[in-house]
Write a structure and sequence with these properties.
- The protein is α+β, with helices and mostly antiparallel strands.
- Helix content is 22%, strand content 43%.
- The chain contains one helix and five strands.
- It has a five-stranded antiparallel beta sheet, with no helix packed on it.
- The longest helix is centred in the first third of the chain and has 21 residues.
- The chain starts with 8 loop residues before the first helix and ends with a strand.
Length: 97
């Protein structure tokens, strides 16, 4: 019974299979396919004495999203660049240690 509707075993199995495919597909696109330390090439990033940059890592995901993790003494910045349809989306999040 699903929301007051009776479903046969065959229909339930198909529904579970479809849900499993959707979940596995979404998990696969979030998989890291490449990770690289790019600290030596980030002279353009501003670092200050109070919160200096320790290292910078670039991650590339299966769905072509790119995440740059900027680890500093007191904080870590996560910058994720995503391309959806014809626009680019940039999300930035800062976490304090």
């Amino acid at each position: 019974m699903l929301g007051g509707v009776h479903l046969s075993n065959n229909t339930m199995k198909k529904l579970i299979l479809i849900l499993a495919v959707v979940v596995l597909t979404s998990c696969g696109s979030g998989k890291v396919v490449a990770e690289k330390d790019i600290t030596s090439t980030t002279d353009w990033l501003e670092s200050n004495e109070d919160n200096p940059i320790i290292n910078v890592v670039q991650k590339v995901y299966a769905n072509d999203d790119v995440e740059i993790i900027i680890k500093k003494k007191l904080t870590t910045d996560y910058v994720k660049i995503m391309k959806r349809k014809s626009k680019r989306i940039i999300n930035k999040r800062t976490v304090e240690h």
